[in-house]
Design a protein that fits this description.
- This protein is an alpha/beta fold and 381 residues long.
- It folds into two domains: 180 residues, 3-Layer(aba) Sandwich (Rossmann fold); 115 residues, Dehydroquinate synthase-like - alpha domain (Dehydroquinate synthase-like, alpha domain, Up-down Bundle).
- Helices cover 44% and strands 18% of the residues.
- The chain has an eight-stranded mixed β-sheet with strand order 1-2-3-10-7-6-4-5, sandwiched between helices. Strands 8-9 form a two-stranded antiparallel sheet. Strands 11-12 form a two-stranded antiparallel sheet.
- A hairpin with a 2-residue loop joins strand 11 and strand 12.
- Helix 3 crosses helix 4 and helix 5 runs parallel beside helix 8.
- The chain is globular and about 60 Å long.
- Bound molecules: nicotinamide-adenine-dinucleotide (NAD) and glycine.
Length: 381
């Protein structure tokens, strides 16, 4: 069983967990764009969770060639004959491009998707981001349901409305904020996820502990073996706490003018690693893991974290079998790539750093020498 609220950090959240016997539902409070996040096992079979949240017009499911044979038949069956056009994309981060996006628009046109239609994004974060962006722009914006099937997408990318495709100049540079109408995180889909992808998702789970919730981090340190063994109740708890933290932060700052940037711990470093190594070589979560180590090392170089804190960050990531060493890009190349980050303001790279474990901050006025020192030490001169 998942721990009760006093055994974990849930009790502190403004989010409401509507407990029922089959699944849990969180609500992300965004006024007239509020929506439910359903978390549980077997949700793909529950068509009402989609039909209650989406308009009645034609629906287009966007998925990829890996996920389609695994989960599209279940979705089709559950929708019981409802007209469902299908767009099956090639798999991989390297396909998160304008060319692939054009294929989604073509499918929308062929299926005559109008403003009373909807997109169902069935897959991991790549599919969620492409399909979400297509929905944000088609007919100036139509509804999207996020149906995440990777751990990473269940704990992060499906929630909060960021959508994007990559540009050769950088990751996620072409995108929009477009909140889904519903998120359906079916934990059963995690059974078929490759081990490496599960571990990549754990990087984003650990991130929530590091930025905002030391008690959750303690829980992760204790329960990592259960998570790696895919114990469903442990996964359910990790997904729920992660989504609750993300929903709380997004409700405070939907468009990332303030605290939402904290969700990018490790990402400015990680995006540089992903871009330098070639999209898809390092998984997003792996790059974020190495990036969180760099953020911890920089925080230590600034005198904010102790060596013991940095060791703890490395240790929990190692427990999750994630990389803690960065590729030797060289400090200059890393800085060049980091300067493309969307958080750069007036030429300064704003970094998410840690004042303490469980207390991240967005820093702009840090000593740049400390950053260069860490990059040189960890990535070469
Ligand atoms: P992904 O979408 O590439 O999925 C990983 C792999 O797992 C793919 O090969 C996919 O086909 C396969 N897969 C998916 N579900 C499966 C299942 N149930 N069983 C077996 N295989 C399955 O990668 P991801 O880690 O889910 O997402 C990474 C992407 O998410 C990146 O592009 C990143 O930029 C983006 N992202 C977006 C946000 C956001 O807020 N929008 C946040 C974090 C990450
Ligand atoms: N993954 C960071 C965000 O959604 O803001």
């Amino acid at each position: 069983m998942p721990p009760t609220s006093d055994a974990g950090p849930n009790s502190n959240f403004g989010m409401v967990a509507l407990v029922n016997t089959e699944h849990h539902t969180l609500r992300i409070e965004l006024g007239d764009r509020a929506y439910p996040i359903h978390i549980g096992s077997g949700l793909l079979d529950k068509d009402a969770l989609l039909s209650d949240a989406l308009p009645s017009g034609p629906w287009l499911v966007v998925t990829n060639e890996t996920v389609a044979p695994l989960y599209l038949p279940t979705l089709r069956k559950s929708l019981n004959g409802r007209l469902l056009a299908e767009c099956i994309l090639p798999d991989g981060e390297q396909h998160k491009t304008l060319e692939t996006l054009a294929r989604v628009y073509d499918a929308m046109a062929a299926a005559r998707i109008t403003r009373d239609g909807a997109v169902l994004a069935l897959g991991g974060g790549v599919i969620g981001d492409i399909a979400g962006f297509a929905a944000s722009t088609w007919n100036r914006g139509i509804s999207v349901a996020q149906i995440p099937t990777t751990l990473l997408s269940q704990v992060d990318s499906s929630v909060g409305g960021k959508t994007a495709v990559n540009h050769p100049a950088g990751k996620n540079l072409i995108g929009a904020f477009h909140q889904p109408s519903v998120v359906l995180a079916d934990l059963n889909t995690l059974a078929t996820l490759p081990d490496r992808e599960l571990r990549a998702g754990l990087a984003e789970v650990i991130k929530y502990g590091l930025i905002a919730d030391v008690r959750f981090l303690e829980w992760l340190e204790a329960e990592m073996p259960r998570l790696l063994a895919r114990d469903v109740s442990a996964l359910a708890y990790a997904v729920e706490v992660s989504c609750a933290t993300k929903a709380r932060i997004v409700a405070l700052d939907e468009r990332e003018s303030g605290p939402r940037a904290l969700l990018n711990l490790g990402h400015t470093f990680g995006h540089a690693i992903e871009a330098a190594m070639g999209y898809g070589q390092w998984l997003h979560g792996e790059a974020v893991a190495a990036g969180m180590v760099l953020a911890a090392e920089t925080s230590r170089a600034l005198g904010w974290l102790s060596q013991a804190d940095v060791d703890r960050v490395r240790s929990v990531l190692r427990q999750a079998e994630l990389p803690t060493e960065s590729p030797r890009l060289g400090a200059d190349r890393a800085l060049e790539l980091m300067s493309l980050d969307k958080k750069v303001k007036a030429g300064r790279i704003r970094l998410v750093l840690m004042r303490a474990i469980g207390e991240a901050v967005v820093a702009a006025d840090y000593d740049e020498a400390a950053l260069r020192f860490v990059l040189t030490q960890e990535m070469g001169g």
